[in-house]
């Protein structure tokens, strides 16, 4: 009653043993592919972690620089500006990690929150009654009166260009893991599991437990079993090329580090622009939102203090160097994996599975 290991000679196998062999080859095939995938998956997962750590380090540094701007130049609003600054950098981090948000919405939400503070603490520091309604009116008016001039739009443009490649790379790395995990658990067809049993276990039915498959025979069986997986070859090569393009984009003109550290300067320029146009802004806001309560004797506006760019700290330099090194190391490794899916059958037939240094091997029917 044997279905797979039929042979003219007497046999020591049963139908039940054939079923056990089919379960064994499924398990072994999955384990073999997992072992092949392990190094590649380990490298991608390691770099996802490394990139995220470098991103977070750069974001923390840029956030600290931005916070220090308010503490040194705009002290009257430093405490209240802390939350909008934190939200801005949280949104940027979520965007890089692939969240359903945009750089534009994050930046404009920040400037919406910033305008009531700039207006009430710097342009009209005598305002005492900053009610929720008045604050909300200032937020909504910001889009119409454009108090920050071109600087808010420039910030959106610069950040969008530089963060795009980082976001795409982050998503691409996650996609790579997804592809590898999917190929590990690709189901074996009935024909494939029978062919693997015939190749690996049918010799045992003749008592030939030490004989192993011929190399050419193994390759034919594995190529048939892995036809659907090896079809990924062209797409995988394209994927590696895309990774190379994205890492080059990150290192080129759309430099993430430069854009993040430039946030401080963009915000400073935007606030200076609003202060210089204070009288016109006040006239427009009074018409739209009404006049808020003032302290007796209007306080003089804060002096406009241009802020010099602080020198880049050791933390930033290290994070910058770390990110650049990780990019190079990662893409060099990934380029070597271009043929990963094209050569998967050859690699599964390597090592202990086949007989290489012997004159005899199993060809599926007999010892040759």
TrEMBL record:
Membrane-topology descriptor: Lipid-anchor; GPI-anchor
GO cellular component, one term: side of membrane
Subcellular location(s) of the protein: Cell membrane
Keyword Amino-acid biosynthesis: no
Main location (coarse class): membrane
Listed Pfam families: Glypican
Gene Ontology process terms (BP): cell migration; positive regulation of canonical Wnt signaling pathway; regulation of protein localization to membrane
Keywords: Cell membrane, Glycoprotein, GPI-anchor, Heparan sulfate, Lipoprotein, Membrane, Proteoglycan, Signal
Family named by the database record: Belongs to the glypican family.
Protein name per the record: GPC5 protein
Native organism: Bucorvus abyssinicus (Northern ground-hornbill)
Taxonomic path: Eukaryota, Metazoa, Chordata, Craniata, Vertebrata
Name of encoding gene: Gpc5_0
